[in-house]
Amino acid sequence: MADMEIRPPSGSRKTKKIAGRGYSARRGVKAGKGDKGQNSRSGGGVRPGFEGGQMPLYRRIPRKGFSNYPFKREYDVINVSTLEKKYSDGETVSVETLKEKRILKKKFASVKILGEGELSKKLTVDIAAVSAAAKEKIEKAGGSVVGSAENEKPQEAKAESKPEPASDASDAPEASDDAEKQEEKGSVDGE
Q1: Beta bridge pairs of residue 93
Q2: Cβ neighbourhood burial of 80 (10 Å; 0-12, 13-18, 19+)
Q3: Measuring CA to CA, which residue among 144, 149, 94 is closest to residue 123?
Q4: In terms of DSSP H, where are the helices of 28-112?
Q5: 15-56: pLDDT as tens digits
Q6: At residue 157, does pLDDT exceed 60?
């Protein structure tokens, strides 16, 4: 087959429809825009969501509540059954090894291990997010979960670093300073 014999598939290339070039061209005079009105004029039409001056839908709906959408964390989910297939006994499961074994394809990924399937191999899992069911299965097979403690640490630190309310002892020196000033004033007034 020569280059000049190659044709595009039928229906893939359509001719441009030219409007407004007279009656004989079929789409002449009104050019498919109908009679008069804002939409028939050049540059006419209204912006999306405009309802002719009526209060538009996007403004009629109340804005209330809180959406967690901007803050949600999405995980790439890996099940215990995948670890069983891809890893051998005694290996360490981490983000790096998951990428090496082509289980993870994204460059930057948050990974969570879930407990679907069975695990018989002893693995060391060094990943921050591990479900309770997955942790149980990993430990039952003789393995260990190293990275899941990282999730708990920030919460504990927050609980410990709460500021304590000021005690009454700190207010007392101010009161005694005021009393001393009053005494000095009184002695000056008395003279």
Answers
A1: 125
A2: buried
A3: 144
A4: 57-60, 80-86, 95-100
A5: 888 888 888 888 888 888 889 999 999 899 999 999 999 999
A6: no
CB contact at 8 A, 51 and 57: yes
Domain ranges of the chain: 73-156
Sheet holding 76-79, edge to edge: 76-79, 111-114, 129-130
Fold for the domain defined by 73-156: Ribosomal Protein L15; Chain: K; domain 2 (3.100.10)
* Residue 128 near residue 95, CB atoms below 8 Å: no
CA atoms of 180 and 188, how far apart (whole Å):
13
Compute the C-alpha angle 171/172/175, nearest 5°. 95
Q: Is 76 helix (H, G, I), strand (E, B) or coil?
A: strand
